[in-house]
Design goal:
about 350 residues, mainly beta, Tachylectin-2, Chain A, Jelly Rolls, 2 domains, five-stranded antiparallel β-sheet, four-stranded antiparallel β-sheet, 1 helix, 21 strands
């Protein structure tokens, strides 16, 4: 049950341990496995490496480049035993064999919900950010009646609940950010999409094109038509700062950066635009980088440099606390990053 493999990206891993996995139940505990090719597996050791959980779901693990250790996000409940809400806890390891005391994940000031699978993993474009395309389970929220359940030929034990996919993020530690409480992927048209444990995402968001990434979601659970479906997004397209035609603005918190250029992932309409102003900590425009000096950016790009009258170089501000002020019209800003020009 819940065998969950990953490609170990830790530097210096022996060839025979390139792939790792955890799998098991409350009775067995989590067993560690290793493999050279992802096809033929052996136990890392006979005994379980971690036993302090219920594990009645997919329990995911990976090497964290940002935290320099292995992380495991696994099923726990908020109450005693199988009581309360299905939730997530976290443990860490330096060697994939010895794991720390588990810590419950927190969700900020948001109402508790049943998180069935968490699917937490480092985002391939920014591995210091973990993405969790999780399954939200709504027990007892029944959509189909018995006659409709017979029509879609669903297992009679699996139609009295419903589920969808949600988006959570984490920058390390035991904190999930649930800024977006809304469904990330809603159940589709048709009663077959509104049964128990359907719409559960598979692990990982993966690149599938120069400007595209994909995730995979299980559909038609407990039905003869059960299958995985691919969903595609633009790179970094989980969410955006969106400005309407009437214009809007957004100012960041103060931060310090490294690099000499600011790259933006954005899209505008033919009538839309984005301008970037750099402010000091007090909100005063930095000479040379004010809104008046900012070049109007128009188009649809995964990476495009912010530009001012004197060009794109921002190296003079590196290491100093600054804010970014975006002035936008009919545009979406998906991400930003500072880079060093090769």
């Amino acid at each position: 049950h819940n065998f969950s493999p990953f490609l170990d990206t830790r530097p210096g891993i022996p060839a025979g341990e390139r792939f790792k996995a955890l799998g098991g139940t409350k009775k067995s505990g989590l067993i560690a496995y290793v493999s050279a090719d992802g096809l033929r597996w052996r136990k890392f050791q006979e005994e379980p490496v971690f036993t302090k959980g219920l594990f009645d779901s997919q329990n995911v693990s990976f090497w964290s480049e940002a935290e320099q250790c292995y992380l495991c996000y696994f099923r726990t409940w908020t109450g005693e035993g199988f009581a309360g809400f299905r939730s997530v806890s976290r443990t860490t390891s330096r060697d994939f064999m010895h794991w720390t005391e588990p810590v419950e994940m927190t969700f900020g000031e948001t109402p508790l919900e049943h998180i069935y699978t968490n699917q937490t993993h480092p985002y391939f474009r920014a591995p210091h950010i973990c993405i969790a395309i999780a399954a939200r389970f709504m027990p007892g929220r029944q959509i189909l009646n018995e006659e409709q359940a017979k029509q879609v030929n669903v297992n009679p034990n699996y139609f009295k609940d419903c589920s969808d996919a949600i988006l959570m993020t984490s920058r390390g530690g035991n904190v999930y950010d649930r800024t977006f409480m809304e469904g990330f992927i809603r159940p589709g048209i048709g009663l077959q999409n509104w049964v128990s444990r359907s719409n559960y995402p598979a692990l990982n968001v993966v690149p599938t094109g120069p400007a595209e990434m994909s995730l995979y979601v299980q559909h038609d659970y407990a039905q003869p038509t059960a299958h995985l479906r691919r969903y595609s997004l633009r790179l970094d397209g989980f969410a955006s700062v969106c400005a309407l035609y009437e214009c809007g603005s957004m100012t960041t918190k103060p931060f310090v950066f490294k690099g000499d250029r600011l790259l933006l992932n954005f899209a505008t309409s033919a009538a839309g635009s984005i301008r970037v102003e750099i402010l000091d900590v007090d909100g005063t425009p930095v000479p040379g980088y004010s809104a008046v000096e900012a070049q109007e950016l128009i188009g649809n790009y995964i990476e495009h440099p912010a530009c001012w009258k004197e060009g794109t170089d921002v190296s003079a501000l590196a290491g100093k606390p600054v804010r970014l002020h975006f002035i936008m019209k009919d545009a979406d800003l998906y991400s930003l990053r500072f880079v060093v020009t090769p």
